Amino acid sequence: MNKDSKSPKGESRPSYTYKGAGVDIDAGNRLVTDIKPLAKATARAGTDAVLGGFGALFDLKALSYQDPLLVATTDGVGTKLKVALEVHEHKTIGIDLVAMCVNDLITQGAEPVFLLDYIAMGKLTPHIAVDVVAGIAAGCREAGCALIGGETAEMPGMYPPDEYDLAGFAVGAVEKDRIVDGSKIAPGDAVLGLASSGAHSNGYSLIRRVLERARPDLSADFHGRPLADVIMEPTRIYVKPILDLFGQVPVKGLAHITGGGITENVPRILAEELTAEIALGAWPRPPLFGWLQAQGGVAEQEMLRVFNCGIGMVVVVAAADATRAMGSLQQAGETVWQIGTIRSRRPGEARALVA
Question: Is residue 258 in some structural domain?
């Protein structure tokens, strides 16, 4: 509040300001200045990734597409934010945000070209906001897309002063004749699974419930790392290895294993008459998932519906291309297994059989 003012009746009353109401415009302006270099470091053909205007421009012609389609996705990181706040780790949550958006884009064959972010905070805490945006910029660089704009909103009363929320909006481009939509998947095709880096950004409401029950020391060693680091490991970004794969073999289908796990995400790319037979023993389940299952008494089917259980992306190729596809992915730094096959679906049968 500033100096008192007079009411129409001549009574003295307090004079309000926006800052006094909880929104600091000057702090917001300083934040924009602080994050401009982070965004500029993500610049790519088609944009210079300079922040500050009312809108962001992207020149699609700079990418030399002949007959492009734009693909758009939006996502957040869910209640993983609650864990980030608890362990004071804000430098990697932005990578999660980017990954959840761009991994969806690549499933349709689209190259991510730009991303916008939205950060809503109860009270603008500059060092936290900069850490978050630094993570977003790092994720964008890894995915090869530009951070061309966004919004940081200070919203007292909407969020507690020490909390914030995130959303991301990504756009990619793909030649119309190179869209990956699962329509060419056929019986006999191979199902490949790419290793996840951890729980990624799904199932954290259940993870938090397990943590409440188990009350572990998050700083304690867990298979060579602090448990907090394992739980907060950022979502793996699969964009560049899969873009490379497109140049090696025909990719028939891609499924990003997010909420719903393998059992609900793989069927999204299959025709009604097909099913995927997935062998659980085809890959080692990371220790985190075993710990969560044991500590929470979580049933196996619930694990498979909630968590990725070690597989972050599924790739479907012809059986004859499986070895070459796996070699390409491994050369790009991925850990990959053949985890199943496609076959015709019997009446009443599930569209993903995991056993």
Answer: yes
With helix as H, strand as E and coil as C, how does the chain read? CEEEEECCCCCEEEECCCCCCCCCHHHHHHHHHHHHHHHHCCCECCECCCCCCCCCCCCHHHHCCCCEEEEEEEECCCCHHHHHHHHCCCCCHHHHHHHHHHHHHHCCCCEEEEEEEEEEECCCCHHHHHHHHHHHHHHHHHHCCEEEEEEEEECECCECCCCEEEEEEEEEEEEHHHCCCCCCCCCCCEEEEEECCCCCCCCHHHHHHHHHHHCCCCCCEECCEEHHHHHHCCCCCCHHHHHHHHCCCCCCEEEECCCCHHHHHHHHHCCCCEEEEECHHHCCCCHHHHHHHHHHCCCHHHHHHHCCCCEEEEEEECHHHHHHHHHHHHHCCCCEEEEEEEEECCCCCCCEEEC
Within-domain flag for 5: no
Task: Please tell me whether residues 249 and 129 are part of one structural domain.
Answer: no
User: 85 and 220 in one domain?
Assistant: no
Please list the pLDDT of the chain residue by residue as tens digits (355 residues): 444 555 556 566 778 876 787 777 777 778 778 778 888 888 888 886 566 677 788 888 888 899 999 999 999 999 999 999 999 999 999 999 999 999 999 999 999 999 999 999 999 998 999 999 999 999 999 999 999 989 999 999 999 988 999 999 999 999 999 999 999 999 999 999 999 999 999 999 999 999 999 999 999 999 999 999 999 999 999 999 999 999 999 999 999 999 999 999 999 999 999 999 999 999 999 999 999 999 999 999 999 999 999 999 999 999 999 999 999 999 999 999 999 999 999 999 999 999 8
Same-domain pairing of 134 and 231? no
Q: Are residues 71 and 202 in the same domain?
A: no
Residue 148 belongs to domain spanning: 19-178
* Prediction pTM value: 0.92
The number of domains in the chain is: 2
121: domain CATH number is: 3.30.1330.10
